[in-house]
Design brief:
alpha+beta; 6-stranded mixed beta sheet; 5-stranded mixed beta sheet; 11 helices; globular; binds ligand DP6
Length: 412
């Protein structure tokens, strides 16, 4: 290894994902091994993603990380486990142009700088840890020339945050719970890529929340300890649902997909209620959105919208196609209008063409009013994001997007 003060770095972009069959409960807290399989859809990274730059240099004296511009500690066991696992798989790296040569054994001694940034507000409660750990592991694997496939990398990302393992792929992804004690078979696999079912449009309602919710990690621990419904769910309900969901996705069967997605979200929240003390992740606005969608689907000849809620009040709505999505957005904006001082550009983020098509000015067509029914009380939605299923992680070649300075390896 040359002794010069070089810095070598890689920048990657990784999507976030939303589960349609939920992961809730661990059988091993340290290795992060789940009690059931789960399935998710990866969200378009143009709208929701994490950008991470990882750098290595002989001049770094310790591992350091900055998250959204603020330095954070890497001492937690989840970071340490990911770093240890990925370091042990590093291989020889050579950059002849810069005269850099790193040997496999050097990775144990060399220190890393990591800078990570979400393109959506972290406080919105949109699975930022999933994209974050997936991006960390993916970027380090590229930097260290780790020769493993995305499924093997998913088993490392899983040790940062369970749901992160599903962010190593685009499209629809399954996390196999596995049954080995060491967790080596608890990996994510891609079911289909993002082109397979590209009619779907995803609208996220970021719902304001007054209270700080219990984290997924502690919430699911309490559910494992106290909820009988969770045991029943993991043993008797999810295995069959997983088979049915895989079929629905393969056949692009929206009716079955909606039935399973909504039922699984509702059962997950029922498990939270069955936990002692009970956990309430959804709030009145979340419940109003569920009612709106249920009414909408009943008024249509076949279901047109699926909903799912994670460990927070935000609604993730999956519309059958663009036509439904445009009408849905019109209905949502009617029920949850922006505050008078908020302009539409900052109230509906993501794919702007849907807002344009929705033509949000003017009176809501009677047909849509009939679908959503009376919605007297205005809810509290902070903003909406229009998105779709998206691709998996990529390395960004454009060095100007790097979050670390190419000479110093410090945040720009
Ligand atoms: C409700 O992956 O955040 O989003 O493994 O403890 O980090 P840890 O939990 P986390 O839990 C996600 C729970 C969920 C459902 C899901 O994504 O499957």
């Amino acid at each position: 290894m040359a002794e010069e003060k070089w810095v070598m770095m890689v920048t990657a972009q990784t999507p976030t994902n939303i589960a349609v069959i939920k992961y809730w409960g661990k059988r091993d807290e340290v290795r992060i091994l789940p009690i059931n399989d789960s399935i998710s859809v990866t969200l378009d990274p143009d709208h929701l993603c994490t950008l991470t730059t990882v750098a290595v240099s002989p001049s770094f004296d310790r591992d350091r990380m900055w998250l959204n511009g603020k330095e954070i500690s890497l001492s937690g066991s989840r970071y340490q486990n990911c770093l240890r696992e990925i370091r042990s798989r590093g291989d020889d790296v050579e950059d002849k142009e810069k005269g850099i040569k790193i040997e496999k054994k050097d990775w144990e001694k060399l220190h890393l700088h990591i800078a990570s940034h979400n393109n959506f507000p972290t406080a919105a409660g949109l699975a930022s840890s999933a994209a974050g750990f997936a991006c960390l592991v993916f970027a380090l694997a590229k930097l260290m020339n780790v020769n493993e496939d995305p499924s093997q990398l998913s088993a490392i990302a899983r040790q940062g945050s369970g749901s992160a393992c599903r962010s190593l792929f685009g499209g629809f992804v399954k996390w196999n719970m596995g049954n080995k004690e060491d967790g080596s078979d608890s990996v994510a696999v891609q079911l289909v890529d993002d082109k397979h079912w590209d009619d779907l449009v995803i609208i996220i309602a970021v719902v304001s929340s007054r209270e700080k919710e219990r984290s997924s990690t502690s919430g699911m621990r309490e559910s494992v300890e106290t909820s009988l419904l969770l045991q029943h769910r993991a043993k008797e309900v999810v295995p069959e649902r997983i088979v049915q969901m895989e079929e629905a996705i393969k056949n692009r069967d929206f009716t079955s997909f909606t039935k399973l997605t909504c039922a699984d979200s509702n059962q997950f929240h029922a498990v939270c209620m069955d936990t002692s003390p009970p956990i309430f992740y959804m709030n009145d606005t979340s419940h109003r959105i569920i009612s709106l969608v249920e009414k909408w689907n009943r008024s249509a000849s076949t279901p047109e919208i699926a909903y799912t809620f994670d460990a927070g009040p935000n609604a993730v709505l999956i519309a059958r196609n663009r036509k439904v999505a445009v009408e849905l957005l019109q209905g949502l904006l009617y029920c949850f209008p922006p505050k008078p001082d908020t302009d539409m550009k900052s109230y509906v983020l993501g794919d702007a063409s849907i807002v344009k098509e929705a033509g949000v000015e003017g009176e809501l067509p009677q047909g849509i009013k009939d679908k959503i029914g009376r919605q007297d009380q205005k809810g509290e939605v902070s903003y909406f994001i229009c998105s779709k299923a998206g691709r998996g992680p990529v390395v960004l070649q454009d060095q100007t997007q790097a979050l670390l300075h190419p000479q110093t390896g410090l945040p720009k």
